[in-house]
Every structure is written in C-alpha cells, then in structure tokens.
Amino acid sequence: MTGATRAIADAAPCPCGGGARFGDCCGPVLAGTPARTAEALMRSRYTAFALGDAAHLADSWHPGTRPESLDLEAGLRWVGLEIVDVVAGQPGDRRGVVEFRARWRQGRDAGELHERSRFAFQSGRWWYLDGAVR
Questions:
Q1: Cα angle at 134 between 44 and 114, to 5 degrees?
Q2: Does residue 13 fall inside a structural domain?
Q3: Under DSSP, is residue 35 helix (H, G, I), strand (E, B) or coil?
Q4: What percent of the chain has pLDDT over 70?
Q5: Least CB-packed of 55, 99, 117, 128 within 10 Å?
Q6: In whole angstroms, what is the distance from residue 10 CA to residue 17 CA?
Q7: Which helix (H) or strand (E) holds 86?
Q8: 6 in a domain, yes or no?
Q9: CB 103 within 8 A of CB 115
Q10: What CATH number does residue 51 fall under?
Q11: pLDDT tens-place string over residues 70-100
Q12: Please, which pLDDT band fits residue 4 given cuts at 50, 70 and 90?
C-alpha cells in the first residue's frame, strides 16, 4: 500500500459531502469505529481516497476480494461525491449496494468515477466487496 495521508481537522467539513463535520462523520470510521451502514462505509472509503488513507481502504475491503496491493495515484484529487442509489445496507441487513459518482482532478484533467458497489456485513462490521464501473 502506498499513498501519503493528508491530515484534516475534526471541525472541518467532511470530504464525503454528507454535510457533517469530519469528526462527526467519516473521522470515527477512519479511526476504527465500525460503520453503521454500507453507505457510511462507502462515504468513509471516498474520504480515505480524498485523504490518501490507503490503510483504511485496505482494512475496509473484504479479505476475500481485497487485492494484494493498493497504490493511490499521486496527484489525483477527489473533489466531490454524489450518492445515486442505496439498496439495503442498513443495521440488520447482510448485504447492501451503494451507487455513487465521484469527481476527480489531476493537473488539467478532470473526470468522474461512476460505480455500483457491493457490501457485506460479516463479523460485526460492513466490508466493501467489489464494484461495477458504469
């Protein structure tokens, strides 16, 4: 795993765009508190990409589908997240799906990742399984 983690204050707006402060939104999940829902885990993973937190990305990826290595692209900035659809993934569910659009910039280039991600609840926590890029 590579990637330089960028620090963010708890009082700063959360990069996931959920409207809460980082310390009340994705911060606790990145610090190790299990996400309550599949959407909360997906938002924390977006925030981890935005902050360069490769450790959280690896730790939240299901061991059965996680790649051996994870390299974050230097110079790529994640600049916005939109949740398109959420299916299940609530407390008490075993599976969930979160479809999202994440905007990025790299130098003069800009683009969007549109993915429908699958999540599973096992061992008392949500895990990212995989995603289909749209």
A1: 35
A2: no
A3: coil
A4: 97
A5: 55
A6: 14
A7: strand 77-88
A8: no
A9: no
A10: 3.10.450.50
A11: 889 989 999 999 999 999 999 999 999 999 9
A12: low
CA distances (Å), origin 79, targets 12, 15, 25, 84, 103: 15, 8, 17, 16, 5
Number of domains in the chain: 1
Torsion of Cα atoms, 18 then 29 then 80 then 86, to 10°: -70
- For residue 79, the one-letter residue type is V
Q: Which residue has the tokens 């407390």?
A: 91
Side chain identity, residue 121: F
Domain interval for residue 81: 22-133
**Residue 69 is which amino acid?**
S
Structure tokens at 15: 């990069």
Cα 115 to Cα 37: distance, rounded to the nearest angstrom: 18
Is the pLDDT reported for residue 6 higher than 50? yes
Q: Taking the complete model, does pTM exceed 0.70, yes or no?
A: yes
**Beta-carbon-side half-sphere exposure of residue 104 (alpha carbons within 13 Å):** 17
What confidence tens digit (pLDDT) does each residue in 12-69 have?
Answer: 999 999 999 999 999 999 999 999 999 999 999 999 999 999 999 999 999 999 999 9
Residue 102: Cβ-neighbour burial (10 angstroms; 0-12, 13-18, 19+)? buried
